[in-house]
Amino acid sequence: MVVFHIGQKTVKKGEIQQLPEEHQTERSPDILKVQNVDNFDSFYDYESGTSCINVKNRLKNSLDFWKNINASKFILDLIENGYKIPLINEPESVLLRNNKSALEHKDFVEKAVQELIDASLIEEVSNRPHVVNPLTVSINSSGKGRLILDLRHVNKQVVYSKIKFEDWKTASQFLTSDCFGFAFDLKAGYHHINIFPNHQKYLGFSWKFGETVKYFVFTVLPFGLCSAGYVFTKVVRPLIAHWHKDGIKITVYLDDGLCLAETEKLCCEQSVRVKNDLILSGFVPNKDKCIWTPVQTLVWLGFTWNLKSSLMELPLIKIENFINLIDVILSKAFKVKIRLLAKLCGKIISFSPAIGNVTQIMTRCTFSVINLRQDWDQYVDLRQHSDSIQEIMFWKQNIHCLKPVPLLRNNSEFNVFTDASDIGAGGYLQGLYLQNLIQSANHYSVIESAFYGIKWAHNLAGVANPCDSEMVRLIVEASRRKLNRPIEKKSPVTSLI
């Protein structure tokens, strides 16, 4: 008999048990009820820190949860039957060789492929798939590798779908002074979504084990499909809407979530609710990366969020990596590849949310050098571009002391009561103002400046614009006729004067 803990209460595996009262919210007690043994397994695996949790079919096994939160028919069909890749035309059958990066990291690829097999995320097939795509390996700044299926051949035939991702700007709208927050990350986010069986043949690849070439197909959403970000975000959206409906201020960018709350107690309650909903939905949170305890300082989307001061700051590790990149450029006596220079500028621009528009101002000269390129791998001597060197030295000397941009701004509050009808008070008062201004003005530009100033101020405040009044329009036209009088020509200069 397996026994584990939910909160402070001991529960026997196999019992139908409601979560402890202190971990429930008044708005959704039905969602927090554990309905079957599979959900107990999910809670137990997560809370015990099991590292080998298999994400395959978890969403499908939790289909009732998605029905309870009123997910759309598209999402329910996707979860139940797998994602049908929207194709313009069927991709041409092709056999493509693996990329150089995969061949250079053979040991990593073999290990990654074996892990995918063990997790049932790929299947070995006896016959060559319709499309055999290349494998590639991406190494991030920390040295961690990621196996990616190079689907450029298939992506040419995938219907483009536009979607707006949530980001730091979305989260900052929920920010309040001295608030609290928690963050979560989903383990192998894309791999939660199954691929429709008839479309798996487009997601094939090959790898040579010893002297034998083996063929595989992805049975889950792989990294590399151009519509992956779109469909994954679409799947997460019903969860976000479910939380927003209950007043939970949460933002999710792909598989990274951030929730903000006014008080520590409220944040704690919402943290329990969100964690339970994620597990009940079939998603597996990454235990090592999640911060479920309410805090006022956390890292999300590569930035340190100081919720007490309402500031977004650059993490120290990011600054150190940036300085190291500059040192590499300096060590080459300013003779560097354009690619390296573009990498530097890309890092600087990525700092914009934390330090503001100085990132654009102090990269103009360097971007001018980059735009002169004929090839990304060509070398450039920056000593011939002294302005660019000055920009690089500016960043090396000042990156530590640049002031973060405040996320909360103190705006003066004011109320404007207007009415834009022909005889409304707003238009009438503005008409009186312009009439009095005409008497003292000596040129139409004075009236025009006042007119557009009033119009701009009301548009900026997001309130009704009295300039739309017919009365105001007639007064402005009258001022144009009255003040734009013909100028008398001066007498010509002659010898008789």
Structure explained in plain terms:
One of its GO terms (molecular function) is DNA binding. Keywords: DNA-binding. There is one protein chain. β6 (135-139) and β7 form a beta hairpin. This protein has 19 helices and 18 strands. α11 (316-331) runs antiparallel to α12 (338-350) and α17 (425-440) packs parallel to α19 (470-483). With 497 residues, the chain is α+β, with helices and mostly antiparallel strands. It has helices spanning 37-47, 58-61, 63-68, 73-81, 100-104, 106-118, 152-155, 168-172, 228-245, 264-281, 316-331, 338-350, 352-355, 358-361, 364-370, 386-398, 425-440, 444-461, 470-483; strands at residues 3-6, 9-12, 94-95, 122-125, 131-133, 135-139, 145-149, 180-185, 204-209, 212-218, 249-253, 256-261, 291-295, 297-300, 303-306, 311-313, 335-337, 379-381.
Using brief descriptors, characterize the structure shown:
HIV Type 1 Reverse Transcriptase, Chain A, domain 1, 18 strands, 40% helix, RT_dom, alpha+beta, 4-stranded antiparallel β-sheet, DNA binding, DNA-binding, Integrase_recombinase_N, 497 residues
Task: Map the helices and strands.
Blueprint (H helix, E strand, L loop, with lengths): L2 E4 L2 E4 L24 H11 L10 H4 L1 H6 L4 H9 L12 E2 L4 H5 L1 H13 L3 E4 L5 E3 L1 E5 L5 E5 L2 H4 L12 H5 L7 E6 L18 E6 L2 E7 L9 H18 L3 E5 L2 E6 L2 H18 L9 E5 L1 E4 L2 E4 L4 E3 L2 H16 L3 E3 H13 L1 H4 L2 H4 L2 H7 L8 E3 L4 H13 L26 H16 L3 H18 L8 H14 L14
Parallel strand pairs: 3-5, 5-9
Antiparallel strand pairs: 1-2, 4-10, 6-7, 8-12, 8-13, 9-10, 11-12, 14-15, 15-16, 17-18
Helix pairs in contact: 11-12, 12-15, 15-16, 17-19, 18-19
